[in-house]
Design a protein that fits this description.
WD repeat, repeat, single chain, extended, Methylamine Dehydrogenase, Chain H, mainly beta, 513 residues, WD40_repeat_dom_sf, four-stranded antiparallel sheet, 33 strands, Pleiotropic regulator 1
Length: 513
């Protein structure tokens, strides 16, 4: 009786059989055919060096090799000369020519003799330094060297090594120098961060968080439609604000006035007066959920971004919509402001990042490197750089033109939030509840955190929606899907000896895309 197997088992066995059959030849290089290699190199010499074959050749090469034919493995014609004479350069043109006017064209006069090498060097010494160096380099290598070295460097050098032909002054000696592949510099040591407080009170996912400029309290917005203000030192609830009729997606506290701004999935953007704890202004205009907002650091301007594929610039005092920044083709997930140009940066679900001209209300640069939605953007507090987070990679960029710096790979999840402090610690928080900490300069991932969910929550309710450093940058606050706010601090007891950097100077593999 034939034993029945599942399709999966049969397919696996077939794969294994195929693998065993072909594994002997797997990844073996094809043996080099000498004849075809000679033909290939002859063609390569003619196509790549045909324009310089008429240039001078050193007769010394011929003397070393013992004849005109032995010096060239590829069967090319070498220019011969008298063996006993002092070294000379011979020049042949496209046709024979005499050395001067009125000279009969004979076997002796059709080739023009150049000064000997010793005479040329003595002449070079008398020239100015720059001129002599140029002339020496110009006559240092002849067609013989080209013949000898053509294709040789590719065959003889291992991968990752490049050969530099360095001509020293007027000498003919060529030094072979191996260039090192670039390696990642050693990252700065950062103490690990540890969880020291969990704050609960919200009845829904905590979607956004912001710390006030005085560092006394912080504010959170939640899917329970409330905004809560908490004491930073003790973690106690100070105040709850109600008014939104859907999830609160963004909060920010003004450093220029006693105002708190909030936005939500109810399309509303509100300005709260913290002296009266009341809404004093509404900013109407978005056609769909408002996903994020930011305040300009030096002028009274508010910028919001929305699922309607636009970002809007508002005058804080007059409530007027100054500009509608249109250009994205999908929801705009994040927006950031800075005093320097470009003053507004947006990241969108259309996978692009746009840098905007605030005055004109138009795009300056569009960055299309990401392959998936860009949900998070963060500006470095000291450097003129920024980072963007997407499920494919975290990428670092230079202002003002958005030049690519490097990829930070390894956080393979939907990245909802990024935060960075002046010490160069970059934090990325993801939808699966993981948090990675990176060294900004080198892109080294020095810590990975996955905090347990609040007791009573489902394991699936593990997600970080927002994170922010407090003003002293000694505390890290995260807003999470288990309805809590988690507070982290640096481990004071850790040293570089107890927590060494497990770093290897590996060869950098930086991709542009």
């Amino acid at each position: 009786e034939v034993q029945k197997h599942s399709v999966h088992t049969l397919v696996f066995r077939s794969l294994k059989r195929t693998h065993d059959m072909f594994v002997a030849d797997n990844a073996k290089p094809i043996p080099l055919d000498e004849e075809s290699h000679k033909v290939k190199m002859a063609v390569k010499l003619r196509t790549e060096y045909g324009s310089v074959l008429h240039m001078p050749t050193l007769k010394e090469n011929l003397r070393e090799k013992g004849g005109p034919n032995t010096g060239d493995p590829y069967g090319h014609k070498q220019y011969s000369g008298n063996q006993g004479q002092e070294l000379e350069y011979l020049i042949t043109g496209t046709h024979p020519y005499p050395p001067g006017p009125g000279v009969a064209l004979t076997a002796d006069t059709k080739v023009q003799r150049m000064p000997s090498e010793s005479a040329a060097q003595s002449l070079a010494v008398a020239l100015p330094a720059s001129q002599s160096r140029l002339d020496a380099n110009r006559t240092a290598a002849g067609v013989g060297d080209i013949y000898r070295h053509a294709g040789g460097s590719e065959r003889s050098q291992p991968p990752g090594m490049s050969v530099a032909m360095v001509e020293a002054g007027g000498n003919k000696n060529s030094a072979l120098m191996a260039k090192k592949a670039p390696t990642m510099p050693k990252p700065q040591w950062h103490p690990p961060w540890k969880l020291y407080r969990v704050i609960s009170g919200h009845l829904g996912w905590v979607r956004c968080i912001a710390v006030e400029p005085g560092n006394q309290w912080f504010v959170t917005g939640s899917a329970d439609r409330t905004i809560k203000i908490w004491d930073l030192a003790s973690g106690k609830l100070k105040l709850s604000l109600t008014g939104h009729i859907s999830t609160v997606r963004g909060v920010i506290v003004s450093a220029r006035s006693p105002y708190l701004f909030s936005c939500g999935e109810d399309k509303q953007v509100k300005c709260w007066d913290l002296e009266y704890n009341k809404v004093i202004r509404h900013y109407h205009g978005h056609l769909s959920a408002v996903y994020g907002l930011d305040l300009h650091p030096t002028i009274d301007v508010l910028v919001t971004c929305s699922r309607d594929s636009t970002a809007r610039i508002w005058d804080v005092r007059t409530k007027a919509s100054v500009h509608t920044l249109s250009g994205h083709t999908n929801a705009v997930a994040t927006v950031k402001c800075q005093a320097a140009e470009p003053q507004i940066i947006t990241g969108s679900h259309d996978t692009t990042i746009r840098l905007w001209d605030l005055v004109a209300g138009k795009t300056r640069v569009t960055l299309t490197n990401h392959k998936k939605s860009v949900r998070a953007v963060v500006l470095h507090p000291r450097h003129y750089t920024f980072a963007s987070g997407s499920p494919d990679n975290i990428k670092q960029w230079k202002f003002p033109d958005g030049n690519f710096i490097q990829n930070l790979s390894g956080h393979n999840a939907i990245i909802n939030t990024l935060a960075v402090n002046s010490d160069g610690v970059l934090v990325s928080g993801a939808d699966n509840g993981t948090m990675h900490l990176w060294d900004w300069r080198t892109g080294y991932n020095f810590q990975r955190v996955h905090a347990a969910v609040q007791p009573g929550s489902l394991d699936s309710e593990s997600g970080i929606f927002a994170c922010v450093f407090d003003q002293s940058e000694s505390r890290l606050l995260t807003a999470e899907a288990d309805k809590t706010i988690k507070v982290y601090k640096e481990d004071d007891t850790a040293t570089e000896e107890t927590h060494p950097v497990s770093w290897k100077p590996e060869i950098i593999k930086r991709k542009r895309f």
